[in-house]
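agent> call fold_tool(seq_1)
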Amino acid sequence: MSHDTARVERAALETDREYNPALALLRTSVGRNAGLVVALALICVVGAVSAGDRFTSTDNALTVLRLAATIGVVSIGMTFVIIGGGIDLSVGAIVALSSVWCTTLASQQFAEDSHWTMMVLIAILVGAGCGLVNGLLIAYGNIVPFIMTLAMLASARGLAEIISDKKTQILGAKGTDVSGFKDFFNREILGVDVSIWIFAIVAVIGWVLLNRTTFGRRTVAVGGNPEAARLAGINVKRHTVYLYVLVGVCAGIAALLLVARTTTGSSTHGNLYELDAIAAVVIGGTLLTGGRGTIVGTVLGVLIFSTLTNIFILNNRSFSEQSLFKGAIIVAAVLLQQRLASRSTTT
């Protein structure tokens, strides 16, 4: 008995010696978000030094936020899916399909005959429909999320090409009047583009949904331990479907922002959005294994990548260099997550 007591005391002493206040802080959501704020501030300093007034101007700050808005909306939905233990590789293709479907001549004529909001409804319904197919086949068909969403990526992109005949569709094609759509999405409120406001609203709704509702608590439970969640009375399969419908809706909203900015619908829209969204979510501190994540962290992750992209553009750096740098950041973030997780299990 005395031997066991001595062993427990030695283990306790070793744990005390290994305790690191900095690592303990980083394991909390507040600490992770504070670290992201510091990282964003340092990146801004680099931008100010390397690009000067071109980076620090108000117009450029709004440019960064506009760049962040579209992928940011997708990333909010992706956060819920990953926290719930899933993954969605099809969001970029869903954005393309939604943009094409809502800008077909028939859709634009329908919007002209009724109201421009019909284009909004079409894009969101297409996104939700794709998410519903993903969710049903993953939850009830027992298809691995990676495989199912990879199949949806190919299918949605292919369908977008068929519908558009691989051509770019223009808003207002053949004399259709959708000026109401353009006016709404390209207006400014208090000097800020409506796309930025939409991103902010989606982020706030996402935060409330994750942190202040039963839906959010169930998402965390399903991602952390699906079997325990099931035993606790949560319908895991149905909730999984809800999560994929949610990210599909976000992809539909992102498609609208993209159509408004480019005045086109195209099967090439949303290219690599799935990678950018997953990267932002991971950088924001969401575990790829599920069960933990924050909307604030995701927003900061989106801003970090958007600011980096802006700095590379202002300094005339190539897209290849941007991709290489972003890849290094993702690897560093995952390694940090693994280290923090291993330390938390041993202390």
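agent> call fold_tool(seq_2)
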Amino acid sequence: MPATKHLVVLTGAGVSAESGIRTFRDTNGLWEEHRVEDVASPEGFARNPALVLDFYNQRRAQARTVAPNPAHLALAGFEEAPGWHVTIITQNVDDLHERAGSTNVIHLHGMLNKMRSVADETTVYDCPGDIHLGDLAPDGRQLRPHIVWFGELVPAIEEAAEVTSTADVLLVVGTSLQVYPAAGLLHYAPATCPVYVIDPHQPEVSGRGVRYVVEPASTGVPKVLKELA
């Protein structure tokens, strides 16, 4: 029986965008007409917690209206490919990878459908609906979205780096390799590990050979996975 190869997939906003989830980078620094600092930072939450909670309530509700696209489905399906083990490291906070069927997903920036106390980032609860000002965790403190905001530490980054260091193939989809943490994780991949970048804009990556697939995720991902299989 052939040895199992490890496919590590780093996904970003471009994958979710094809399902209809908007990203702030595509809207001149505004996220649904809000400044990112106002709705995605600890300072913004301290200034106006009701605004931030409502913002994520809307994002959560909108995420429930969209469906996984062919990129999500192809990655989930590849878990059945003989001789392959798949780990997805995503910067996205939606659950489209899981809804497509992927079972091994690391969320760097948290998840919309989870929540936690403002005083405890380690205990996480399911969040099926809205969070309102005055909704308290079991510890008696205000609940907040389980989202890593700008300026906060990324607890999963060490696990992601360790996983990337074991990659036999690294596939980068829907994220820029000029933006951290994606750019940083690339350095953990073994020197012999082939790197595929699926991006309709083909960013430049210095320091190692990269194979570009210059097309959207929904067509590029199935194409690369068919080649790997």
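agent> summarizing second result for user.
The domain at 23-65+114-147 is CATH 3.30.1600.10 (SIR2/SIRT2 'Small Domain'). The first helix runs from residue 13 to 17.
agent> awaiting next instruction.
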